[in-house]
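Standup notes
- DV: blocked on the single-chain target, sequence here:
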Amino acid sequence: MTPRPTLSSPLRKLRIVVVNTLIHPGDEHDASLQLQAQRGNALRIGLLESGYDIIASLPADLYLPERIAQLQPDMIIVDAESDARDVLEHIVIATRDERRPIVLFTEDGATDSIDAAMAAGVSAYIVAGLHAERIAPVLNVALARFRQEAKLRAELDDTRHKLAERKVIERAKGLLMTHHGLSEDQAYQRLRSMAMNKKLRLAEIAQRIIDVEDLLGG
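- DV (later): unblocked, structure below
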């Protein structure tokens, strides 16, 4: 079984899903859909010529989140002629539980649309820029930005977690000081001793003390 490439792999080995408008029988005479189809073909040709792995072309419909979950792509490329905001609603749902780099090619240059896209997690928003020679640089920049944002989110989550643990430890110390007449240092040493004896982290033993206090109605 071939191992799935990671985001640290070379870009052209990433598994890409393209989201765009699919042409159905009977739509051949719709000028706007034909233009969309031409853009989609140009995008796929540019990706294939650059050596990228397109695993599927999908419509932005209610089934998109399920298909994304099944396919597990490493990057999503969206081609939206002028309905970028509508497409984004489905993309946001599809990537809510597992973030992925998203590149959006569109003709919609409205400022509010761009703001909404970036807030939704789009890594690159390209207006009127669907040219084969630009695809590789755009994808490289999008991937680099995604990695940087992922790093910042991880650092922020870690900071919040440490702050939450500190509050738990401080509360547990306060309970020990109140119930056992200990000084702050003595309460801290008691916590450390209890954590070592039970082979738990300091925050874990502190949370147990708080849980017991809450259970007893303290």
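- Follow-up: Strands lie at 15-19, 53-58, 75-80, 102-106, 124-127.
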